[in-house]
Amino acid sequence: MQHRRSDFPTGFLFGAATSSYQIEGHAHGGAGRTHWDDFAETPGNVAGAETGALACDHYHRYGADLDLVAGAGLDVYRFSTSWARVLPEGRGAPNPDGLDFYDRLVDACLERGLKPALTLYHWELPSALADLGGWRNRDVADWFADFADVVAARIGDRVWSAAPINEPWCVGWLSHFAGVHAPGLRDIRATARAMHHVLLAHGRAVQALRVRGVGNVGGVFNCEYADAADQSPETARAAETYDAIYNRFFLGGIFRREYPEPVLAGLAPHLPGGWERDFDTIAQPLDWVGLNYYTRKRIAAAPGAWPALAEQDGPLPKTQVGWEIYPQGLGHFLRMIHHDYAGGLPIYVTENGMARDDTIGPDGSVADPERTAYLDAHLAEVRGAIDAGVPVRGYFVWSLIDNFEWALGYGPRFGLVHVDYADLKRRPKASYHALAAALSS
Ligand code: IFM
Question: Is the pLDDT assigned to residue 441 strictly greater than 90?
Fold first, then answer.
């Protein structure tokens, strides 16, 4: 690895990220059913009909996994709490084993000198709430605030940071318009409501966290660079629409109390009545902004109804999941968030990494030079942004370990650490060792 810890300002934090459903093993510990269990058990939704029932069995192996975080010299462990593990019915009586698990996890971080970075929701909505309409139902904001309160009451005194919702675009658009994630809807009205309610829930959860005295509260947004496929005005408009839906809707709601016009052009008739009045709740002051960045998409105009755009195959080298490697996009979004939205707040790269078809070599090692190069190229963009005056304060790799990559099942491997799904053995990859060397030097 070309970068060293000393290339970054004093106090700059390095971390690794995971999420509950992707690693814990949801069948264990009294967790309630989630809409990801329902989605994954529906034929055709997930590659290989795989589910998160066992995943990486992190529920039982979290100690060894946190040893790996600490062993790499990382500072932060970013994890999420499963709503249905804490509240099996989404509301009502908590599952004591679920709360105990997160209590132990946080203490285990602290014992290893790691800063626990909490995300309350990383996509596994309790099925009992999905039955009531899930993210389409305005009441989800209050249900989520109650969940935030329960978690904050138990571990809020010890987490280093807290964020309500990972990647609102995935919760809203990918899951309700594209139908790629649970609940697998393709419905414009459901999309408009989910996209608005996810922001309302964010705001209500921030309020609940503040009431419990939780500090260092932020929001985590995923961004994807929109590369216009040609020079035509129609294509420029399509790329602008893609950028607005993906990158500007959620940041705009929270930091500017407005939704971008190219999104309103399609969604305004379907938003819930009085949505403009919700910005008082949505726009809660935050302490930091998290950016999850992976790739760009080549966007062209397409005939038909709004959003009238299509993704095209791009020319750049791609990762295992077909995503173009475009580090410049990370620098672009760090500057964009700083200038257009965050107004000087600290920014963290809360996820960045690549999927690779990693295999175990004859000597038991896992060579992944492309991943090390990917991390280096993106760290160079972080450096460039810092030099340009953007207050980037940390960089967290997705992911600590290989895990359940949602609709793609266990095929894509994003981890710094290889997981053999036959016996769940962990093997640090060459990129893990390279990062550890970079951080210790
Ligand atoms: O695995 C996901 C994660 O859950 C959220 N951000 C992107 C990752 C890679 O697709």
Answer: no
